Amino acid sequence: MRLVTISNSIKDALTKSEVVPTVIHSDSFTPKGFLIISYGQDKEVAMGNTLSVKDTQHRPDFAFTLNLSKDTDPDFSISSSDRFTLVLTDPDAPTKGDEKWSEFCHYVVKNIKLNDFDPNKSVDISQIEEQLTTSNLNGEDLVPYMGPGPPPKTGKHRYVFLLYKQKPGVEPEAPADRPCWGTGVPGWGAEEWSQKNELQLLAVNFFYAQNEEQ
């Protein structure tokens, strides 16, 4: 499948679910690769599928593979010294339309390193290789993982994973609290926090989960 087709499919899913503009405010965001999240066999996050609350209470495995060409983003590069941050956020807390806890921070891990990476060279983004995959969350937890806990009768919640590239020399700081990402402003969340910490958004994936009592 052509890169532009893959990218457009992701963007369409984000728009249809209103992850754009609720979580990602700009509709100009273009993903730079695939963010794969798995809670176990047959429990992968798949751009808006539904998973059970029970199956998502443990920290998932994750992988990212760059998917770009020089034509689409000639100035983008990744090197062995780069570090990455992964977050999980719920924009529907306590329920869609009531933003008093939104966004709710479920997880932040920083300083994720690339696995199996040649330390002597930067990556040519015209390549699409497995060496661009990082996995197993080999970083430092800023906010411990908290699984979904949607209240009864609040419908499906969106649980959105966002992967960022860190700015060299800038250490992301933990949000002050989970509700509203510690800002005290209903509706604020991952994007406001990422801007404060000078992070560059690379990729996104999300799933739905709901309380059994509806």
From TrEMBL:
One of its GO terms (biological process) is regulation of Ras protein signal transduction. Pfam families: PBP. One of its GO terms (molecular function) is peptidase inhibitor activity. InterPro entries: PEBP, PEBP-like_sf, PEBP_euk. It comes from the Eukaryota. Gene3D superfamilies: PEBP-like (3.90.280.10). This is Carboxypeptidase Y inhibitor, function requires acetylation by the NatB N-terminal acetyltransferase. It comes from Ogataea parapolymorpha (strain ATCC 26012 / BCRC 20466 / JCM 22074 / NRRL Y-7560 / DL-1). The lineage of its organism: Eukaryota, Fungi, Dikarya, Ascomycota, Saccharomycotina.
